[in-house]
Amino acid sequence: MNRSVLISGCSGGGKSTLLAELGRRGHRIVEEPGRRIVKQELESGGTALPWIDAIAFARRAIEMAMADYTAAREWTGWTFFDRGLIDAASALQHMTGEPVLEGMSAAHRYNGSVFLTPPWPKIYTTDPERRHGFEEAVAEYDRLAATYPTLGYDVVILPKIGVAERADFILDRLGAN
């Protein structure tokens, strides 16, 4: 059984908070590649940032997500990813038209159920690492919600409930309790 689980969806939809809750419960979690890249680039004065060079940013996110995926194959138990390779490849393909999704998705397969956080204006905020607006976040969500099923994933939209209840929902769905 593939225990590498993607949590994707709308920016500002509660993914990071949900991952923190799953980590608190003892599961291995992998922080979103994009947030790690933004932190690194801001600290070093780099330009691979989504608001400066989105293509370079997406390519770095693909590299980081591939390394995360490879590392997780050595781990036992459930591993929850805050976004992952498919999100980064989808972004790059959207921007450039390069057919990057096909080759990567077959070689780097996650658990068949992908959990998406839907757009939720009530909790959406920007921060130094998330500078885009809600409309851009919704457009990204729509693209991902359409992409995952074409790659053979079962998309599960997370209900707009508290973080503990969301974690319970995922673990129940996976039979991981």
TrEMBL record:
InterPro entries: NadR/Ttd14_AAA_dom, P-loop_NTPase. Residues 5-166 form the NadR/Ttd14 AAA domain. Transmembrane segments: none annotated. Pfam families: AAA_28. This is Putative ATPase. It comes from Rhizobium aethiopicum.
